[in-house]
Amino acid sequence: MERAAFGEEAHQQQRRQRRERDSRQQRGFRRDQQAADQVDDHRRRLRDRVHAVVFAYESGLVQPGA
User: Residue 12's closest CA among 59, 45, 55, 60?
Assistant: First the structure.
């Protein structure tokens, strides 16, 4: 159940990012700035995933080697 919720949250985040990117294009942002923003978004998502994995191990939801 939580896994499905996590997937839905990721999907909603992608939709928000797509809308934001479209909005930036309409406002005339340069493509290189958009690329830099996408890299920042990717780093943020990666950091969130790492935190989720750390939380899972520390809370006992996942066992090493499982």
Answer: 45
